[in-house]
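Dear support,

Our group has been running a series of protein-ligand predictions, and this particular one with adenosine-5'-triphosphate is the one our PI (initials K.S.) wants archived with full inputs and outputs. We had some confusion internally about which version of the output was final, so please treat the block below as the authoritative record. The input we submitted was:
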Amino acid sequence: MLRIDDLVVRYGAVEAVNEVSLTVAPGELVALLGANGAGKTTLLRTVSGLVPANTGAITFEGIDLRATKAEAIAAAGIAHVPEGRRIFGGLSVEENLILGATTRGRDADLDEGFARVYELFPVLQERRNQGGWSLSGGQQQMLAIGRALMSRPRLLMLDEPSLGLAPILVRQVLDAVRSICDGGTAMLLVEQNARAALRIADRAVVLDRGRVAREGAADELADDQQMRALYLGA
Ligand code: ATP
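Confirmed final output from the archive:
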């Protein structure tokens, strides 16, 4: 469904992404792992049309994303939750969710969207009329993911959803990510918490200074000696 071939993205002289190829199949959860500065955020931003690629190809369901503007990429079914949540503190939980449905225009069935988000994150239903500012960090992350789901994406890209969360919330958020995927939404999940990501992913790709260093089935990578020594802190 998403296919990236030999992608190169430079910021001036910095090669942030260097000949990266990867795919995400329908219904698949692919984790994109690697240290700070490995190029993970740049790769997501390039798929979303926020950063131009230098060379290579990106296609989504046959559409050439390099020739497509960011708004049209979102309308084609790709949602992106950037690092740092960025919810609207002055709006209520429900108003934040409604904003997520705007790419669907008049097709949006808000009640169906709310029901889906509240089933995944019941605490958001309890707080639906409260201001975004009043939510905890974990709840803000849930709202950011919920808002993205309101557009009914076929591919959801999440940038570091576990960043700054207590371990119990990391588990809760990542379990929800898995269940979104099980509901039929493909996922590209950027995580620095490699161990937690491998627990829920089908496959993983490890970037190292812009290049693919490792890739494979998540359970195999989790058991791999070299992977454990380099990326899993074991
Ligand atoms: P992080 O987890 O810190 O976000 P990352 O794996 O997502 O790391 P990127 O943020 O994509 O990595 O950064 C890849 C490289 O590109 C780094 O060397 C970074 O310093 C550089 N870089 C990122 N954004 C810019 C920018 N706007 N201008 C110049 N260089 C940038």
